[in-house]
Fold these 2 entries.
Entry 1:
Amino acid sequence: MKEYSLFIGCTIPVRAMNYELSARKVLDFLKIPYRDVEEFTCCGYPLESVDELSSLTASAKNLALAEKYGTNVMTLCSACTGTLTKAKKILDENDEILEEVNEQLKVLDLKYERKAEVHHIIRVIMAEIGLDKLKEIVKRPLTGIRIAPHYGCHYSKPTSIFGDLDDPEYPTSIKRVVEALGGTYVEYENLMQCCGGAVMGVDEKLALKLAGKKLEHISDAGADAITLVCPFCYIMYETNQRRIERDLEKKFGIPVAFLTQLIGLALGIDSVDLGFKINRVRPKDLLAKIESA
Amino acid sequence: MTQTDVDSGEKSTITSDQLDPNFKYEVAKELGGKAVKFCYQCGTCAAGCPIRAIHAEFNPRTIVRMVLLGMRDELLKSEEIWHCSNCYTCYERCPQDVRPTDIIMALRQIATREGLAHSSFRQQVDLLGDMGRLYEITELEEGKRERLHLPQLRAKTDDIGKIIEKTELKKKIKGEKGGK
């Protein structure tokens, strides 16, 4: 198995340490080789809205570093996944743009050589371990746990960049993982709706309104938990859940778990080691159900 | 936006001398704007847009139409081009592969060159220039990470600062007009 460079991005190490913690624990457990790269910086996502060349160069910088260590990139955040994958596609298909970007990269003495690939951790697990194998090694199946997925947008869209990794309207990768873990996958109204995270800086009210709509739909479907794969979506549904409850004068109290946290639980890893103490919406009932089974 | 004025019945006539007939070509030159001229205004983008559903002022179809009409000034100064959540729903569904998400990105980039970047993005560029990351890693985070046995991180680097200096974004983002 080729080694991966773990790309944790800006948000996870500060605002979603439970994602990072559970990802590392699960990778160690599954013996997927990865390294940390101290020189990694922002993926380039926020720069895309202001300057294409700067964004592509920031992405290429990180890709070049992964190449320097002879690795592929493993991302946790969907925005990083989308941005790096898009940059790679543009740079791999356009000689002129690659040249221009590498010209900028000279200030850091780096060069992108079109070698590094970009893979989201869930896809790494699916490809390197496989769902049949995962199912086999589950120690604590999530039997009877009703799990509502939130795929997020940059995990599989646009398909012009991601290809057919997942269907843009009806994705199934999280479904397949949840079912391999023994859980019950819960569908709900408007399942593919965006979390609104990308508008948070521009119009907080609007972003929270969007997130609130989804929490209502998930609540109506009667889920025990939401699972997701991106720190921005997590901040919208988890970190901001109480605030949304106040705004809507409703109580949701739906725990939100990163998919890596659920994988870890099913593999028998202790919930504290998976960072569940960091979750603000207390997952006590959820954990009790899983741990007592 | 103008479309809203029309919807609400308020008069807002635009005369042709206020339009820039070359704007669509300007947008089409951007990486994300290539397909703008293919739009036949079917409205599939607006129908699926999650922002449009809760915020009537935002409408991807209107934005593309305004590009085609040449309403350059109005678009670049509008708050609405910053309201897209880039969820790619319209991008996936557009029968003409116009990629409205990318067109809106192109509009933001043109606006930035005119000194009209939204303040929230200006702040983000400043942070990235100073630290190379969006969130500061303070002693508090360092302590938390240590307790969780997570590796210590390099808190600051000027790598992104060097990149945006080289690409001249650092200069562009300041702008003379002050933006929003």
Entry 2:
Amino acid sequence: MTRSVRLPRGTRIDADLLGALVHWQAVAVLQDEVDPMTTELVRLRCARHHDCHT
Amino acid sequence: MAEATDIAETSQVLQQVLADRPDVHRHLSDAWTAAPGAVDARLLSLCSARIATLLGGPADDAFPLDDVTPSQLTSWPTSDVFDDTDRACLAFTEQFVIDVASLDDATANAVVDHLGADGFGNFVNALLVAEQRQRLRLIWDRLEVTP
């Protein structure tokens, strides 16, 4: 696991793509028909993706 | 990279499975529509094709690649079809797909060297879209939920 900062302050991210990703992820997590086991597996996968330890 | 025509296109699979969730499909569609505008379209197609190979799925119709053969792509470290930017991004793509949390600085910095910081950020976001499309498609194929 590396914790180096890879995007310097001031990096400009394409607003259309970033906005679309934010909306896509927001609407995806609002889906409530996934069983608890799958939900937990996805949560753990996302935590690893984001190097999150919660 | 040509695909057999009897395999459903990924876009078609996503649309069918998400037919009852049009808001989800619309936002995912917005993301893959925006992706080629944020990075070099050929580069994204190249990396999308590599993702398909690594995951064992069909090439994604959203990011078509016409000028590279599968064997050339498999031998990207040595094939003269690719330049240094291609190789840096393909190396990043491989680590991204195999174990994203273990991506090392050298591999990431190689992409920054070629695309710049802005380009690197956009490339990673676009790569995420390409990977998510293919993983969703593969999961739904295996669960046989595709209509």
